[in-house]
Specification:
Layout lengths: L5 H4 L2 H6 L8 H12 L4 E4 L7 H6 L4 E5 L2 H9 L7 E4 L13 E3 L10 E7 L3 E10 L4 E10 L2 E10 L3 H10 L3 E6 L14 E5 L3 H8 L1
Parallel strand pairs: 1-2, 1-4, 2-3
Antiparallel strand pairs: 5-6, 6-7, 7-8, 9-10
Pfam family, one: Methyltransf_25
Keywords: Methyltransferase, Transferase
Protein name: Methyltransferase domain-containing protein
């Protein structure tokens, strides 16, 4: 998919619909993350509308965020407590907040799946379709929110590459981190290799590093 900007993919229209389909994982995710913050400050990459950051802050964790879409941040600010969070708009690979964090996390709502097309919103004068294709060979997921209405057709595409857990493990090792925990969900169910995963990385204990170098 070419010729699109990630910022526009989550523009005002897409951001306004983002919370229409609650995922129901905010409470479980916030409890899981709060237990690993150990009272330290947390940073969320792609904070979005605050689906996880807001309940996490309610548990007493001070949360900052980085978000590419200003429209998503605008939705966050409308929610109770949203105006109290420090959020930087821009590319999370380039922004420096100037703070140190005990926990950095990046949630994702994407799970590799077959192609589908489903109605996302149906109104009297328009319909919005969520269209998705996934190529297992390239691991590229192309998703498009297509609005068909009296005023024509509008597209809100986004394209991303899904990384296997083994790839994340390698990137972590290159950065000097080790896999500490991996589960099949926020409730710490076993990871079976299918569906979602929750992976926790950190500095390995000194005793573990010593064993690895022998």
């Amino acid at each position: 998919m070419q010729g699109f900007s990630p910022e526009s993919s989550f523009g005002p229209e897409a951001a306004g619909r983002y919370d229409d389909r609650p995922r129901g994982d905010g409470h479980a995710a916030s409890e899981f993350l709060a237990a690993r913050a150990h009272g330290a400050r947390a940073l969320e990459f792609a904070i979005g509308t605050g689906r996880i950051a807001l309940p996490l802050s309610e548990l007493g964790v001070e949360v900052d965020g980085i978000e590419l879409s200003e429209a998503m941040v605008a939705q966050l600010r409308k929610k109770p407590g949203g105006a109290d969070l420090d959020v930087w708009s821009g590319d999370m690979t380039a922004i420096r907040t100037g703070s140190s964090y005990g926990l950095i996390y990046v949630p994702s709502a994407w799970i590799k799946t077959n192609a589908y097309a489903r109605p996302e919103d149906v109104a009297a004068n328009a319909v919005v379709l969520d269209v998705c294709t996934y190529d297992p060979a390239t691991q590229i997921l192309d998703e498009n929110h297509v609005r068909i209405g009296d005023d024509g057709v509008r597209f809100s595409p986004i394209s991303c590459r899904l990384a296997w857990p083994s790839e994340l493990d390698l990137m972590a090792r290159i950065a000097g981190l080790s896999l500490l925990e991996r589960y099949g969900g926020w409730h710490q169910q076993p990871y079976t290799g299918e569906g979602m995963h929750v992976s926790v990385y950190g500095r390995a204990p000194a005793s573990s590093r010593a064993r690895q170098t022998k």
